[in-house]
Amino acid sequence: MKIATFNINGIKARLPRLLEWLEEKQPDIACLQEIKTSDETFPAAEIEAAGYGATWHGQKGFNGVAILAKGQQPIERMKGLPDDPDPTHSRYIEADIGDLIVGCIYLPNGNPQPGPKFDYKLAWFDRLIDHAATLWTTERPTILCGDYNVIPTSSTDDTFSERAMATDALTQPESRAAFRRLCNAGWTDALRTIHPHGPAYTFWDYQAGAWQRDAGFRIDHLMLSPTAADRLLDAGVDKDTRGKEKASDHAPTWITLRD
Fold it and tell me: Where is this region: Disordered (predicted)?
């Protein structure tokens, strides 16, 4: 089973690229972030024609998340995190797909920092960690995946330049500490488990020739509960997708699990 996370950066603007990727890579489950469309204007018909059922939590022009499942309809469990610090933002959706629980995450960016946006980022991360602990008690295989907006380490394995990102909310000690708290609670960083060394970038900015210079960083993560991690076979990044015309600034990041 192949499960992918993909910040699409506007599903209507990138719909041809999304449909192309679904056809080429055939993920069984695809979690999308920054769909940037309302519930009413989500392209459900096009997604269905591609062979996928979908559930989504939209927001006009901003944020928005969706879960797609090949050949079946995801069974929605919730929209939004419990005790979300700002429920007007569409940043989380959760579904049952077969025996899996799948949570799709678009964690706040937090810039500029310090300030209220950074405070919101950390508060939202706290709520996510609390909810992850609740999911843990189900003992079901669970994947919490998406755009975490956290570069986990200062290594060039995770960022092209720690110096260039030094004042960014993605690299702050508080952001990294929250990510470590999730890892230390027993959630497995799937991509780093399969590829412990070397750059594994998932994002390249549109500015300053970042793609052409390979000036990227790793902010898209698939975090696995123990029963999901036991089934982990492979992981990777569909980097070539980022190089296509009118591409998202993120590349799809994926895992395969033993059925």
Answer: 240-259
